[in-house]
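Before going further, learn to read the protein records used in this course. A complete example follows; check for yourself that the lines match position by position.
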Amino acid sequence: MVLGSGLGDLANEVEALCTIDYADIPDFPVSTAPGHEGRFVFTNIGGKNVVIMQGRVHLYEGYSAKQVAAPVRLMKKMGAKKLLLTNAAGGINSSFNVGDLMVITDHISSFVESPLVGENDDELGPRFPDMSQVYSPDLISKVAKNAENGNINLKYGVYLQFRGPNFETPAEIRMARALGADAVGMSTAIEAQAAKHCGFEVCAISVISNLASGISKTPITSKEVNETANRIAPIFKNLILKSVGEF
């Protein structure tokens, strides 16, 4: 599990069997973004062994796409088979409201470097992996069932990743909407690419933390993003913990 901006507290609510700081792993990328603790938390949820990334690393921190994907590949080598990605995202779809939860059904990653560029590691996956179904319908259905049981109005949509760290311009958001994006952010898609490449079943959920530039009537700030994530956190955590236990 990868916890995004404002969502890291979930890792503090489970029993940590072991924790490892990214900084203690040789040559491993370290989180520098506010609100990203930067450690692995090993735990058990619903009888399932789970490793949680309490905070991720981003392209905008100066890391390459391969470095951003390194934690995903490490978790795969540790034996993980299913990956849940989370993030805070800007809403583009006019039917979305701040605080909504959106299951990612597909993504657009064309504006950032692929983590698969360079020499392929055949032990991880094929040179030309299929991306026709990155996100697992089975995992999505389990999240949807738990959302329905919890009276959560779950949204579904396409996520577009930009590099950041600046928020997008109104023109860029109009372009993203024209391309079919429902939400936009600065992470997740390249992690999902790497995960699909190495054989993970993938599920991803966005917290719509703000309305995107040009849709929002006020300037967008990281404070707004984190405040929304903190506000919706109890609902989000309940959905995540129930769903992961069934994955």
